[in-house]
Amino acid sequence: MVILGLVFVAVGVLAILSATFVSEGNAELLGMDLSALAIFLVGVAAGACVICGLSILKWGTKRGLASRREQKELRELHAKLERVEGERHGEHPTSEG
Asked: Which of 31, 38, 59, 70 has the least C-beta neighbours within 10 A?
């Protein structure tokens, strides 16, 4: 998810930069001639891509952190369980009498 977010951000930034450096009414973007309306729509789409990419990036990062936190807790619980089981098996009372 993080990679997909970064791709969206990069595409949006590329589109914004290419539209920013054009000062005429017509522009060329990726080999296509665009009118003023098309330039505006490309800007809107680029902004949407940046926002969407940042949202996906944030969500993916939160999800990854939560997953690592859960794995850490599970490892700690497993180690505690192993220790308790080891103590239980080592402390059997002997029946001598």
From this structure: 31
